[in-house]
Design brief:
The protein is an alpha/beta fold. Helices cover 36% and strands 19% of the residues.
Length: 312
């Protein structure tokens, strides 16, 4: 493990630091004066991925060395991509283990090694927590759904215990829009739409809740710097859209037509149980985030999409 710079007092440990959100978050935090501890199974690879970080103010740390660090803040974003493969029994086990096992190790370290230093735990989740809500407006007070994604999110959140020692914040992420060269949801959507083969799912009337990656980073910074905030926060734009509106916006931004529709039966054949990620209606609002005074930079989909695709 790299040696900690003891002149830095405000170290932030981040699991999932090399991911789509984690990379941008590391840079933003370092720009604000925080030291970065990137937690990784492969610290050498993490250093290569995070090569833009100042080496004097960043440390790559294996999960086997959690007793050697003393973070003030823990941000837990680790977890296998839920949309990468069909949900076989084996894949479901991987999705659960990649979240629950790492979170369990981190919370154990928080209680045993970091107790005197740790002030805040921010742990990832997703709006999949709510399941299919139809046209109902969903906010942080809405109970969890009952499909696989909802149960996974619920169990992941519950694996982070409430503690008197530190503040506990859960971030429920929507579809995150950011530069496609960094990965993320738009990376897999862009090519078919760029070729004029973009499509809506079913009748396209189900709701989708999204957020700019820039606003994700800004929201996390907001949660860090407001010590009165705790509990769950929906990280989504205040303007959810239908799947048809989302698909048309993506096509328009790429200056391509959107003429196709994928029938629900075809989605079932192609994706199996994972079709719920594509067809579930989730009209989610960031009620708690707005109540805390947060201001979105990209509340409108067209501006967020243009920013993500570097069209503006």
């Amino acid at each position: 493990m790299d040696e900690l710079n003891h002149d830095i007092d405000n170290w932030v440990a981040i699991s999932g630091a090399t991911g789509f959100i984690g990379r941008a978050l590391c840079i933003a935090l370092q720009q604000q004066g925080y030291g970065i501890i990137a937690l990784s199974r492969d610290p050498a690879r993490a250093r290569r991925v995070l090569h833009k970080l100042d080496k004097k103010r960043s440390v790559m740390c294996s999960y086997n060395h959690l007793d050697q660090i003393t973070p003030r803040i823990l941000i837990n974003l680790a977890g296998a991509n839920i949309a990468a493969k069909r949900w076989t029994k084996r894949r479901k086990k991987t999705l659960r283990n990649s979240r629950l096992q790492i979170t369990s190790r981190l919370t154990a370290a928080a209680e045993s090694h970091w107790r005197d230093k740790l002030e805040l735990v921010i742990s990832g989740s997703a709006i999949g927590y709510y399941g299919d809500g139809g046209d109902t407006v969903l906010d942080e007070s809405t109970p969890p759904g009952n499909d696989f994604a909802a149960e996974l999110c619920h169990d992941w959140e519950q694996s982070v215990p409430v503690s008197e020692s530190y503040r506990r914040v859960i971030i429920r992420l929507g579809i995150v829009l950011g530069p496609t060269e960094d990965g993320g949801a738009l990376a897999s959507m862009r090519l078919p739409f760029a070729l004029g083969l973009g499509a809506q799912f079913g009748n396209g009337q189900h709701w989708q809740s999204w957020i700019s990656r820039d606003d994700v980073i800004r929201a996390i910074m907001h949660l860090i710097t407001h010590p009165e905030l705790n509990g769950p926060f929906n990280l989504v734009s205040p303007q959810p859209v239908s799947n048809r509106e989302f698909s048309l916006c993506l096509a328009d931004t790429l200056e391509r037509p959107m003429l196709l529709s994928i029938p629900n039966a075809a989605s079932t054949l192609l994706f199996g149980e994972m079709r719920s990620l594509l067809l579930a209606s989730q009209r989610v609002l960031p009620t708690a985030l707005l109540a805390s005074g947060f201001k979105f930079r990209y509340p409108e989909l067209d501006r967020a999409m243009a920013k993500a695709l570097r069209a503006c």
